[in-house]
Amino acid sequence: MTRPLVITDCDEVLLHMVRHFREWLDEEHAVDFVLEGQAFRDSMRHRGQTEPMSEEQMWSYLDLFFETEMHRQVPIAGAVNAITELQREADVVILTNLPDKRNEARGRQLRDLGIDAQVFTNLGPKGGALARIVGEFGAERAVFIDDIAAHHASALEHVPHVHRLHFCGEPSISPQIPCARLAGHAHARIDRWDEALPWLIETLHGEAR
Predict the structure, then answer these.
(1) How much is the average pLDDT of 22-36?
(2) In a domain, 183, yes or no
(3) What does the H/E/C string look like for 153-206?
(4) Residues of the chain above pLDDT 70, percent
(5) Of all helices (H) and strands (E), which one includes residue 91?
(6) Could you tell me the CATH number of the domain that includes residue 108?
(7) What are 91's strand-pairing partners?
């Protein structure tokens, strides 16, 4: 019998990202970043301008951040311990929305912070990648963790048997993001690892309601 499987996102689930991205934009690029429920691109403005930047500019800044500033990122409280505990119960892999060229750097970053797990990179909705990973591992019971509601909707479409936990560990944005559980796309919404870990272990063992 195969081990259970946990597929988890990285940014805002294992590591803080938005807070470090905001600081870097402010310090190095005179860009104001205020995320208050609107689209990511609409949250970024060059200082002194009222119009949001173009989508091309947004992706350029994001790519540059992940090229040069990943060392800024620190773990979400409880994340490292939670992954260690989960690895006693299940296989754990990371599914992160970054280009394939960032796969090695992401794995190295996580190992340096105490999380040693296989990394899968992806762009766009995650349902297809989830289906491939679950198929590769042959897991009969799996849990997907992500902070973005749209990825839970994609997971429901592609792998409806996988349990889904909507988790956002960044307090500055967690109250404002759309909730996948309320939308009917996730089984639970928990934003703290000390509360999420018991639910995850129960779910992996088929005990969660």
Answers:
(1) 90
(2) yes
(3) HHHHHHCCCCEEEECCCCCCCCCCCCCCCCCCCCCEECCCHHHHHHHHHHHHCC
(4) 96
(5) strand 91-96
(6) 3.40.50.1000
(7) 5
Q: Are residues 88 and 31 in the same domain?
A: no
C-alpha radius of gyration, the chain, whole number? 17
- Between CA 148 and CA 145 the distance in angstroms is 9
Cα torsion 89, 192, 17, 174 to 10°: value is 130
**pLDDT band at residue 37 using 50, 70 and 90 as cut-offs:** low
Over 80: is that where the pLDDT of 207 sits? Answer: no
Q: Are residues 103 and 168 in the same domain?
A: yes
Domain span at 25: 18-72
Residues 113, 63: Cα–Cα separation, whole Å: 21
Q: Clarify whether residues 60 and 83 are in a common domain.
A: no
Q: What is the structure's pLDDT at 7?
A: 98
Same structural domain, 101 and 39: no
User: Residue for token digits 């766009």?
Assistant: 124
**Is residue 209 one of the residues assigned to a domain?**
no
Strand (E) or helix (H) holding 88: helix 79-89
Classify residue 53 by its DSSP letter: P
